[in-house]
Amino acid sequence: MNISPSTQRIAKGRPELQLDAELRTNFPGSEKHYEEGSRADIRVPWRKVVSRPFANPHTQARKEYPPVYLYDSSGPYTDPNSEICLEKGLPPIRKAWIEERADTAPIGDAEYREYACPSAPDAPVFPNRPRPRQALAGRAVTQMHYAREGIITPEMEFIAIRENLLRKNLALVNRSRIAPEPHSARFPREITPEFVRDEVAAGRAIIPANINHPEVEPCIIGRNFLVKVNANIGN
Description:
Elements (H helix, E strand, L loop, with lengths): L4 H9 L16 E7 L6 E7 L4 E2 L6 E2 L4 E4 L23 H6 L3 E3 L2 H8 L16 E3 L7 H6 L5 H11 L2 H4 L22 H9 L3 E2 L14 E2 L13
Antiparallel strand pairs: 1-2, 2-5, 3-4, 6-7, 8-9
């Protein structure tokens, strides 16, 4: 487990900020891996789950099963090579992508001072207070806008790789078991960045990727993509 010295200092001085060791525990029987895209900063996480062999109780014959590959959205906490620092927060994996588009800028000093001021005198203030960004005058900064301009963003490539992680395994499954109804979703054999762009441009999918949340791993919500569940189970 890699916990930075600064995080240890915070935890020691302020018990409410202690890092629960279970947060760094990997899921049993699985490993976290990354697949790289067209550039080094596109690293798509996925999880390899080891399947136990099955032993027939009558014949004692053993049947081996291949690993199961899963969509992994657990972030850096389950990456044994990552360093978690509560002072710094999550790594801004999309920061360079946002800045390269040159259609946003940090807010002004006066606005930032108001933003950085704690709402209560005893509220915890972290040293890392990123200056929020805003769109330049006359510019739209949504993934839908980029898609309708014909632009393929790094977020779209990230999503295509992530959505494709299981499709190489689906080739081994009877196609009729997973084929959609004719009137329902399109389910191509391969999800390409172009397909992601076209679905977003057509309004059939959305990419929740706010410019002031560069730490988020891109995902897509739409009828032609993997199901995502956002649930508050109230426990």
